[in-house]
Design goal:
This protein has about 170 residues and is of the alpha/beta class. It has one domain: Rossmann fold, CATH 3.40.50. It contains 6 helices and 6 strands. The termini are far apart.
């Protein structure tokens, strides 16, 4: 016999997550917030990411991201505009492996971590390792992804397994 479940009541695990998210919103302390996201992002989303990041940086939170076009570049630009000392960028590979457009932006980053040991890995594998390190350094993860963004979705699941607060926003 199947147990019926009310559609009005959230699952217990979701209640715990909601309570955790509400506690973070009420917490006046500074957090380490990681941003991950797709390289291919609608322009409206770029502006939304920049707005969120500027607000968080103005509150004094430390921001962590990776270095690529799209969401990560928006996080970098917005944080640099407010307070460059709040930003840490972890690259999946060495700086030499980054595109010229993003390298110009990365030149302005004070806290830049390169991973030249990963240069022999495929970008998806190096990115996955990089995302894991980013998640290990944060209190909260905000991720912008498509439903088929396997690396990003896997990173979100990993962050949840580590007990991090995860906000996952989908483009599609």
């Amino acid at each position: 016999m199947r147990e019926s479940q009310s559609l009005d009541l959230p699952q217990l695990g979701r209640i715990d997550t909601l309570a955790q998210e509400l506690a973070l919103l009420q917490d006046k302390g500074k957090r380490r917030i990681a941003f991950l996201g797709s390289r291919h992002v609608p322009v409206v989303t770029i502006h939304l990411v920049e707005l969120i990041v500027r607000s968080l940086a103005l509150e004094g939170h430390s921001l962590i991201t990776s270095g690529s076009q799209g969401v990560n570049a928006a996080v970098i630009r917005a944080t640099l505009d407010v307070n460059p000392s709040l930003l840490t960028v972890l690259l999946p590979q060495s700086l030499d492996r980054q595109t010229p457009e993003i390298r110009n932006l990365l030149d302005k980053v004070l806290h830049l971590v390169e991973k030249p040991d990963n240069d022999d890995l495929s970008l998806p594998m190096a990115s996955s390792l990089c995302n894991q390190e980013i998640i290990s350094r944060c209190d909260q993860l905000i991720c912008f992804a498509f439903h088929d963004s396997e690396t990003l979705l896997s990173s979100c699941h990993s962050a949840e397994d580590m007990g991090k607060v995860v906000s996952l926003l989908f483009f599609d």
